[in-house]
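Subject — a protein and its fold
Fields — amino acid sequence, structure tokens
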Amino acid sequence: MRFLISSSGAAALAALLLGPVGPVRAQDDTPAMSRRGSDLKVATIPVEGMVCLSCAASIKRAVRKVDGVTDAEIDFVGRTLRVTYAAGRPLLLGRVRTAIAGLGYTPGTPVVAP
């Protein structure tokens, strides 16, 4: 038996599994950073090979386990990962990329927000 899911159903499922789906807007960053303090940084990492919601959930789970990561959010539509982490941890993004690659996906070069 096959089940078909509409695009609105897929969006609802994505929101349930991953939180907000779609591009993260710049205005979302400012309040979060001020609430959490200036000792945190945010990096966006493109992820190749992420083709389904299960892929995205696996990546999010693995990255949240990396020591020093305080949050990880997936933009499934944009195929990117947004990582919030403790500043002063220069090797952390390398470990995040290793965690992504260990799942079989290809992480791109991180872009760190100023």
Notes: The mean pLDDT is 78. The chain has one domain: 21-112.
